[in-house]
Amino acid sequence: MRLLSVMDNPLITRLPEIRGSYRENALLSKTNWFGVGGPAEVLFRPADSEDLAMFLQQKPEDVPVTVIGVGSNLLVRDGGIDGVVIRLGRMFAQVNVHGTTIHAGAGALSYNTAQMASSAGLAGLEFLVGIPGTIGGALAMNAGAYGNETAAVLIRAEVLDEQGHFHELSPQDMGFVYRGTNLPEGWIFTGAWLQGTPDDPAVIAERMAVISSNREASQPIKSRTSGSTFVNPPGQKAWQLIDAAGCRGLQIGGAIVSEKHCNFLINLANATANDLETLGEEVRRRVYERSGVMLEWEVKRIGKQLA
Is 60 exceeded by the pLDDT of residue 4? Predict the structure, then answer.
């Protein structure tokens, strides 16, 4: 008797029925800011949190799961991603004001959350206007800028564990560290409650305008980039180390170190994910040779290299 091959039993036929949508061999280069990367074996867009929970509870244990947001701090490798890639859609992007608190879905853009808080006269969330990506990403990365960070404004986070069980976590439960948390790998944020402080909406809007202006002046935000590439080492600035190592403007294939802010890598339009990752590793090597500091990637790299 002939054994069944993977082609005889494609992954999508093994997955539970859902109210959202599945798509096979989904191109991921259109879902991240670098604009590179191979396909997802299956892309799953859950209808809502309950749909996502049910999927996690019923999926085969051997099926790997990867969660992506809008791909603002993500490098998808050219070989794509095996298993199921989950992308949170419209139902996870809602932002609502409740007194002095904001409830934001994990798929809500950080920028939109800051704008909603400003319109409601709630200060303290202005820094989010300078952070690309979603609230889910901000939680996972403990994203911060301009003197504030996600940990400082979080009341509680809503998350699903790998078995599809809901949890509400305090900032202490999150185990926040610089640009990260101590939560188990595979937990998925679905939303968050954030604390604001009453203030004049016009004053808040002015502070946000300054942040936006400073960001545009100092960062290559109109290029194909994915934000800060490397984490700042303790007491140091990654961009200064990169500059001192002579990497400003360094190019490999279609990827280049930004002349404007050298902690940013840019896709010049024809870069592959391998170009970008190879360039990043070359920057790390040169910085280490020059300063003895090994930079850590802040951009999350996922997926397979092409053979």
Answer: no
| Joined tokens for residue 28 | 């991921």
Catalytic member of 49, 228, 277, 286: 228
Is 179 an annotated catalytic residue? yes
Are 245 and 289 in contact by the 8 Å Cβ rule? The answer is yes
- Strand 255-257 to strand 251-252: parallel, antiparallel, or no bridges (unpaired)? antiparallel
pTM for this entry: 0.89
DSSP 27-47: E-GGGSTT----EEEEEEE-S
In whole angstroms, give the CA distance from residue 200 to residue 212. 19
What's the DSSP call for residue 292?
A: S
Beta bridge partners of 255: 252, 267
Question: Which one of the listed residues 41, 126, 158, 298 is annotated catalytic?
Answer: 298
As a whole number of angstroms, the distance between CA 62 and CA 205 comes to 48
* Catalytic residue (choose from 45, 77, 87, 179): 179
Whole-number percent of the chain with pLDDT over 70: 97
